[in-house]
């Protein structure tokens, strides 16, 4: 009888524990290794480089388009000088020559601006300004991620 009572008590306690006790929630946080942190850092740096390259490409495409427009304008003003229907009146011919010279000067100034110096952000078309401002915001965020990844990598390296 004694074994029978022990078995009943054991079964009773097992049932009570089975229904009344929930498993404990155990959270295991894995510490990243130096190699993992290095891979993360390199990926963040590569992403930053890609964003900066994208920005440079947008600016280069805009400069190329501005140079092409300036060239077309200069070519058009040169063609207008050699047209056979030049006015017979000297005053009209002089007005036409002055207008052509002004067009050439404007085209040359545009070409000079597009090749020598980067124009201010206000000089860009609205669509390009919007794209550049979005890219600049992404670049700032990415620089923060790179810095955070660098700090994590350096901290793991010193341990």
Describe this structure as you would to a colleague.
- This protein is mainly α.
- The protein has one domain (31-158).
- It is 80% helix and 0% strand.
- It contains four helices and no strands.
- Helix 2 (34-81) runs antiparallel to helix 3 (90-116) and helix 2 (34-81) packs antiparallel against helix 4 (126-158).
- The chain is rod-shaped, with a radius of gyration of 37 Å.
- The mean pLDDT is 77.
Descriptors for this entry?
single chain, mainly alpha, 4 helices
Question: In short, what is this structure?
Answer:
The protein has 159 residues and is mostly helical. It is 80% helix and 0% strand. The chain has helices spanning 2-20, 34-81, 90-116, 126-158.
Please write out the topology:
Elements: H1 2-20, H2 34-81, H3 90-116, H4 126-158
Helix pairs in contact: 2-3, 2-4
The chain-level structural class is mainly alpha
| Beta-strand content estimate | under 5%
Number of domains: 1
N-C termini distance: 63 Å
Work out the helix count.
4
Helix content: over 70%
Task: Return Rg in Å.
Answer: 37 Å
Low-confidence parts lasting 5 or more residues at pLDDT below 50?
Answer: none
| Number of DSSP E strands | 0
Largest sheet entry: none
Apparent shape: rod-shaped
Mean pLDDT: 77
Q: Tell me the series of helices and strands, N- to C-terminal.
A: HHHH
